[in-house]
Amino acid sequence: MEVFMSDKSIPMYAAIVWYKEDQYDELRRLFKDGHNLPPTFAAWHARVSQDIENARRKGMTIKKVVVDLVEFPAWCIANVHELNDKGRVAFINDKLARELGLR
């Protein structure tokens, strides 16, 4: 699970990378580390659903952050990140921080 944790001065958030089912296979091919993701959307969804439930049990507010086939590569180019797990974490951190008004 790729997570952004807010500081203690605001509610605790867990930012969960979220993929659209119709883009999952193409995103796996696009990511440099796509081979590390579950082979199907259904397998990924089952795993992330468990991660979401675990985070909720810890009292976190879940924010699903969509990693889109067009937006994510453009963001990576503009922000000098690779199309991999580190790029995805930076992307969801940035997107959630903007959504929360922290940037």
Quick gist of this model?
The protein is 46% helix and 12% strand.
Which class best fits the helix and strand makeup? alpha+beta
| Average pLDDT for all residues | 89
Strand order of the largest sheet: 1-2
How many structurally independent domains? 1
Strand content: 5-15%
H and E order: EHHEHH
* pLDDT < 50 runs, ≥5 residues: none
The CA-CA distance between the termini, in Å, is 23 Å
Counted beta strands: 2
The number of distinct helices, counting runs of at least 4 residues, comes to: 4
Could you say which overall geometry the principal axes of the C-alpha atoms support? flat
Instruction: Sketch the major β-sheet.
Output: 2 strands, parallel
User: Helical proportion?
Assistant: 40-55%
Q: Mind telling me the C-alpha Rg?
A: 14 Å
Entry keywords:
103 residues
Could you characterize what this model shows?
The protein has 103 residues and is of the alpha+beta class. It has one domain (13-99). Helix content is 46%, strand content 12%. The protein is built from 4 helices and 2 strands; from the N terminus they run βααβαα. The protein has helices at residues 24-30, 41-57, 71-78, 85-99; strands spanning 13-18, 61-66. The chain has a two-stranded parallel sheet. The longest helix is centred in the middle third of the chain and has 17 residues, at 41-57. The chain is flat and about 35 Å long. The mean pLDDT is 89.
Topology readout:
Elements: E1 13-18, H1 24-30, H2 41-57, E2 61-66, H3 71-78, H4 85-99
Parallel strand pairs: 1-2
